[in-house]
Design goal:
Layout: E1 2-3, H1 5-10, H2 13-22, E2 48-54, H3 62-77, E3 83-90, H4 93-106, E4 111-115, H5 118-121, H6 125-131, E5 135-139, E6 156-160, H7 163-177, E7 181-187, H8 195-205, E8 209-216, H9 228-235, E9 239-243, H10 246-258, E10 267-270, E11 287-291, H11 298-307, H12 321-337, H13 343-347, E12 361-363, E13 370-372, E14 374-378, E15 389-393
Parallel strand pairs: 2-3, 2-4, 4-5, 5-6, 7-8, 7-9, 9-10, 10-11
Antiparallel strand pairs: 1-8, 11-14, 12-13, 14-15
């Protein structure tokens, strides 16, 4: 279903979602850790890390890929890993919080890791600080951390794929590369997170115009991609930004491939728009994607090879987001496990080792999020083009001080 851009601009996130359901017409670190040496007890050599693992129908291999990354990261460090204690929590963030709280209160874990947004995990901060248990909270980074809700604590560390920042980089770069008119299409799931709106704000700040917005898979029973081709034709778009995930991303790609090449402008999106890792789906001609890691680089493919034998899914030549986060977490926890007592050991969870796959990341003191180089990868619009490109893009600054637009309460992809 396509919405007029003036309508979506006037509505907030929850208002937009409410309107989208009822509308029937289609319209054209470095982190400074406080001096905690006197506060942090020296634990025994055997340390246990509780790993919160979600269930995902959008990305069935998410938990397995994250665990594979954990093992590969600690192995790459050359250090003996801590004991991993998997803590599956299904699809409920509240279930994850209950498990984490019980594990910390019982003293059965020395640290927490796993897939949970830092905005959700902040409820645990008083307990983490009281028991002096660190939590490295990993997820996609689909939502911005609101500055007014930020609870700074060295015991809760944000660790994300920086998805909303990547989409802001794409928005800033798109007018220069492809043109100033865009169609923004997304799944109903994606519409409830910040990253599509981060793209739009950055695109408009760079002089672009979002000519049409299309949301697919609405719960009103309408056909999934009804009106999209008409909207593309009427908008005269220079570029189409497609933000989907899971099987819906693959369905979009099939729909896109059915259209005549002459009617298709360049296509861009996140790496999740290509579907789950290992799906085997070829990229549509002219596809470009942006991410906080260069998934096809030699370094990232080497990590993917390390992770492949451990994961339950099919091997992927490119490094997936969950495997990357697991790998980075594994490296950090390996160093933490062998660190001495005090703030120095805690600081090891706040920073990546030298030669980390994503390079140096900077921490924003206003909300605790990290950011750095983002990679734009893609090919020329011609289907015959085979040479890809991967250009590092500086971190986006155009959204500083703006509020988030998210409306969902569950982590992205945990459905």
């Amino acid at each position: 279903m396509t919405f007029s851009t003036s309508t979506t601009a006037r509505l907030g996130r929850r208002g937009f979602l409410g309107t989208s359901v009822s509308t029937a017409a289609t319209v054209a670190c470095t982190t400074a850790v406080p001096a905690l040496a006197a506060q942090v007890p020296h634990r025994s050599a055997a340390r246990t890390v509780g790993v919160l693992l979600p269930e995902s129908s959008r990305y069935p291999g998410l938990a397995a890929e994250f665990l594979a990354g954990l093992d590969a990261g600690t192995e790459a460090s050359g250090l003996v890993p801590p004991t991993w204690r998997p803590m599956p929590y299904g699809r409920s963030p509240q279930a994850a919080l209950r498990q984490a709280r019980a594990a910390v209160e019982s003293g059965s874990v020395d640290a927490l890791a796993g897939w949970l947004p830092v905005q959700t995990a902040r409820e645990l901060v008083p307990l983490l600080e009281a028991r002096q248990v660190p939590f490295l909270a990993s997820d996609t980074g689909a939502d911005r951390v609101p500055e007014h809700r930020f609870t700074p604590s060295p015991w809760l560390i944000a660790h994300t794929l920086e998805l909303w920042q990547s989409c802001a980089v794409l928005g800033r770069e798109a007018p220069r590369r492809w043109g100033h008119r865009a169609v923004l299409c997304m799944g109903f799931l994606e519409s409830g997170y910040d990253f599509p709106h981060a793209f739009r704000r950055a695109f408009e700040a760079a002089g672009g115009t979002v000519a049409a917005v299309h949301v697919s898979g609405l719960p009103d029973g309408s056909e999934e991609f009804a009106g999209l081709r008409t909207a593309l034709h009427g908008a005269r778009a220079d570029v189409v930004v497609a933000l989907y995930s899971g099987p819906q991303a693959l369905r979009f790609q099939r729909q896109w491939s059915r259209w005549q090449p002459a009617s298709r402008p360049p296509l861009a999106g996140s790496l999740f728009s290509q579907g789950p890792a290992g799906s085997g789906a070829p990229q549509p001609p002219g596809w470009a994607s942006v991410a906080s890691w260069n998934a096809g680089s030699d370094a990232c493919r080497s990590i993917a090879e390390r992770c492949a034998p451990r994961s339950a899914g099919a091997a992927s030549a490119d490094l997936s987001g969950p495997a990357l986060l697991g790998f980075e977490a594994g490296q950090r926890f390996a160093r933490w496990h062998h660190g001495g007592p005090g703030a120095d050991r805690l600081a090891l969870l706040h920073t990546d080792p030298d030669h980390a796959p994503r390079g140096a990341r900077q921490r924003d003191p206003a909300n605790g999020e990290r950011n750095g180089t983002h990679w734009l990868r893609g090919s020329a619009p011609s289907a015959a083009a085979t040479d890809g490109l991967a250009l590092p893009q500086p971190a986006p600054y155009c959204l500083r001080g703006t509020s988030g637009c998210s409306g969902w309460n569950t982590p992205y992809l945990v459905t």
